[in-house]
Design brief:
heterodimer; A: 11 strands; B: mainly beta; six-stranded mixed β-sheet; five-stranded antiparallel β-sheet
Chain lengths: 112, 111
């Protein structure tokens, strides 16, 4: 059945290390969102792609975060260098046009 | 910019009805979504409203008033499995149709 797939599901890393999170959107979907969820802030939009083109990454700290879609089946979110305050659950979601977004299971990141 | 407000927590009793409100301010409203999120899981889609009125889907209904910037999610015949967070989200056409979420309402169901 169609679903958004995220890897890894869990990641523990040391401060200063590079972290790469991957997302496979549902086949045929043309929009991809990256969100970060914490207890304090809820779901924050980090980056947004349509037809693989980045439309908005204003919610993302540019100095350490980067988001790309090398092809239609892969979206990546990279943090370099990682910091303890980046600890959160990172969700990828995909959609088609103006329809609802479907979420992946998330990557739980812990930076120590 | 966008402001999406919903209560932080609510409590209701099994079998009862509960209404979760959401108010929003956005420059280019293009639809409102409700999602359900159980602890430790991903958000799942519940409903979508873009025109004024009530959309009913089984035990769940969602209402929208665009002029008031207001929506509610109505849950009937509450079950214990409805204990979850309920997230209101708005699509903004003046910001490339991106979807912005409120902080969610944690709903506790008591037996």
């Amino acid at each position: 059945d169609a679903r958004v797939t995220q890897t890894p599901r869990h990641k523990v890393t040391e401060m200063g290390q590079e972290v790469t999170m991957r997302c496979q959107p549902i086949l045929g979907h043309n929009t991809v969102f990256w969100y970060r969820q914490t207890m304090m802030q809820g779901l924050e939009l980090l980056a947004y792609f349509r037809n693989r083109a980045p439309l908005d990454d204003s919610g993302m700290p540019k100095d350490r975060f980067s988001a790309e879609m090398p092809d239609a089946t892969l979206a990546t979110l990279k943090i370099q260098p990682s910091e303890p305050r980046d600890s959160a659950v990172y969700f990828c979601a995909s959609g088609l046009g103006s329809q609802e977004a479907f979420f992946g299971q998330g990557t739980r990141l812990t930076v120590v | 910019g966008q402001n999406i407000d919903q209560p932080t927590e609510m409590t209701a009793t099994e079998g009862a009805i509960v209404q979760i409100n959401c108010t929003y301010q956005t420059s280019g409203f293009n639809g409102l979504f409700w999602y359900q999120q159980h602890a430790g899981e991903a958000p799942t889609f519940l409903s979508y409203n873009v025109l004024d009125g009530l959309e009913e889907k089984g035990r769940f209904s969602s209402f929208l008033s665009r002029s008031k910037g207001y929506s509610y999610l109505l849950l009937k015949e509450l079950q214990m499995k409805d204990s979850a967070s309920y997230l209101c989200a708005v699509r903004d056409m003046r910001r490339d149709d991106k979807i912005i979420f409120g902080k969610g309402t944690r709903l506790h169901i008591l037996p």
